[in-house]
Write a sequence for this structure.
């Protein structure tokens, strides 16, 4: 079976949840025995030099088109008088459309897999030039993120973000029914998508899986006084999370237990480096995620916006780290408070959870070990690939 995958960015390097989720899907398709071709936009924001790509991209026969997705104020102003989603339209390229057409005309494919909702701007093109089944793998309910982002802004910025969210919601709701099948990343996302689904669609939630064998889980030498956050820092919800944590939580933790906080992530905004001192280490980009996590035990993920499933939380759990997060952060993960993770939704509760973990090292690491076992049982790559193969067979039969 032949599958072409459309992505709106090259999923490399694996420094953020989106790239990890996309790459895991691509590797799983190969492992399932499919012939896979990757067509990708190469955005200026996440630009990748072709020569830096690892060998797997040769197997994927990747072809890409460069695109500038920066906000263009002239286009943004024109969009005020349109009902189209500016968020989605930024990912449209005539050159990339032509690449898709050439690919579909040259060879017959069984499936076109759209990675992320923004790739749906090419849905009509695929429908016009191919009889392949169209499958969407959404990473989030994107308009939810923008709706929540607007709440943190003041007028007129909140008005404009709300307008973008409204148009993006319309784009998502109109796009979802046009796919033959959808593979949401969480059951909560599936509930939202089903509101717009048509009766012929196949929809099945498959959470992003973790290749547990590649992650060494040994927290015996990890320090519970070393607290860390790791995530893509060009993503607004992560920026908001860290501003909230540093301004409303950290002082309580520092005064109570003299811990150290380490913050790392791709495209770290300059504003965060002002927090750096003896107790707060702001590292920005890092080369090796697991080396960074190795000597630290407590991972904080205070998310208040977003949907889908947090890949970095799954990775942290697989590494037997003690995750302290919000109810939203653990959304889509079948984990229980104080057994596999710690859940806290306000500054005092969040600080108290960290302080408790620091002062109860054995219990803290026990939660981390339980998290690892949960990942092994429910989120292994083997389980994912088995279910993925079955689903694609159903869709294409």
């Amino acid at each position: 079976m032949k599958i072409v995958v459309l992505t709106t960015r090259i999923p490399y390097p694996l420094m953020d949840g989106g790239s990890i989720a996309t790459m895991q899907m691509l590797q799983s398709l190969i492992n399932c025995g499919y012939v896979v071709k990757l067509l990708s936009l190469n955005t200026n924001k996440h630009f990748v030099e072709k020569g830096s790509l690892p060998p797997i991209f040769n197997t994927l026969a990747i072809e890409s088109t460069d695109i500038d997705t920066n906000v263009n104020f002239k286009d943004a102003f024109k969009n005020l008088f349109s009902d189209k989603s500016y968020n989605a339209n930024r990912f449209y390229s005539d050159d990339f459309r032509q690449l898709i057409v050439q690919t579909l005309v040259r060879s017959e494919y069984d499936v076109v897999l759209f990675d992320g909702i923004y790739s749906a701007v090419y849905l009509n093109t695929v429908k016009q030039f191919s009889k392949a089944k169209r499958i969407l793998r959404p990473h989030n309910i994107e308009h939810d993120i923008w709706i929540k982002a607007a709440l943190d802004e003041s007028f007129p910025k909140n008005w404009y973000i709300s307008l973008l969210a409204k148009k993006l919601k319309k784009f998502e709701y109109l796009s979802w029914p046009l796919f033959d099948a959808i593979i949401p990343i969480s059951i909560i996302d599936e509930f939202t998508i089903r509101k717009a689904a048509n009766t012929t669609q196949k929809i099945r939630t498959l959470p992003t899986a973790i290749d547990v064998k590649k992650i060494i889980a040994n927290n015996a030498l990890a320090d519970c006084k070393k607290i860390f956050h790791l995530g893509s820092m060009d993503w607004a919800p992560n920026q908001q999370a860290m501003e909230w944590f540093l301004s409303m939580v950290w002082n309580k933790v520092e005064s109570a237990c003299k811990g150290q906080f380490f913050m790392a992530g791709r495209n770290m905004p300059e504003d965060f480096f002002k927090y750096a001192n003896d107790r707060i280490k702001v590292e920005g980009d890092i080369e090796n995620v697991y080396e960074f996590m190795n000597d630290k035990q407590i991972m904080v993920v205070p998310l208040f916006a977003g949907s889908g499933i947090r890949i970095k939380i799954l990775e942290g759990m697989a590494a037997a780290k003690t995750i302290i997060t919000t109810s939203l952060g653990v959304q889509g993960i079948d984990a229980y408070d104080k057994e596999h993770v710690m859940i806290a939704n306000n500054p005092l509760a969040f600080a108290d959870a960290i302080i408790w973990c620091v002062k109860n090292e054995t219990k803290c690491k026990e939660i981390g070990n339980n998290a690892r076992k949960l990942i092994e049982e429910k989120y292994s790559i083997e389980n994912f690939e088995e279910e993925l193969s079955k689903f694609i067979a159903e869709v294409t039969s």
